[in-house]
């Protein structure tokens, strides 16, 4: 894993507010590759890198999986907080998209 990949991952994780408090690591491909594993209880996730060339949005794709797990594992007894977290997640996703022409 190059330092640039680690920096990109760090920036992505920091961008998504729902991942506050999560520890997300990128590790070299081993038996698992191009996947992510997570433990919501400890708020830790591991992204397994690809052996070959990866797609242009590989890290974003895997970080979004972690975001979804973070959303799904929120306390279901607090629907207002879940709704707010969902809205923030959508806003964070939209913020990285190219601006539309008017």
Summarize the structure in short.
The protein contains three helices and three strands; from the N terminus they run αβββαα. It has one domain.
Question: What do you see in this structure?
Answer:
There is one protein chain. With 102 residues, the chain is an alpha+beta fold. It has one domain (3-95). The chain is 44% helix and 15% strand. A hairpin with a 4-residue loop joins strand 2 (35-39) and strand 3 (44-48). The radius of gyration is 15 Å and the shape is globular. The mean pLDDT is 88.
- What is the general shape? globular
Helix percent band: 40-55%
Biggest β-sheet: strands ordered side by side in the sheet? 1-3-2
Our Rg estimate from Cα atoms comes to 15 Å
Low-confidence stretches are: none
Order of helices and strands: HEEEHH
- Proportion of beta-strand residues: 5-15%
The largest pleated sheet is described as: 3 strands, mixed
| Oligomer state of the chains in this structure | single chain
N/C terminus separation: 40 Å
Give the number of domains. 1
**Structure class:** alpha+beta
User: What's the number of extended β-strand segments?
Assistant: 3
Number of helices: 3
Summarize model confidence as the mean pLDDT: 88
């Amino acid at each position: 894993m190059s330092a640039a990949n680690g920096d990109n991952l760090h920036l992505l994780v920091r961008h998504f507010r729902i991942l506050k408090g999560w520890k997300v690591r990128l590790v070299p491909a081993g038996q698992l590759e191009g996947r992510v594993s997570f433990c919501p209880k400890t708020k830790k996730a591991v992204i397994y890198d690809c052996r070959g060339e990866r797609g242009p949005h590989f890290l974003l794709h895997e970080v979004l999986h972690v975001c979804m797990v973070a959303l799904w594992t929120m306390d279901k007894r607090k629907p207002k907080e879940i709704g707010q977290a969902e809205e923030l997640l959508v806003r964070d996703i939209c913020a990285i998209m190219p601006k539309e022409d008017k």
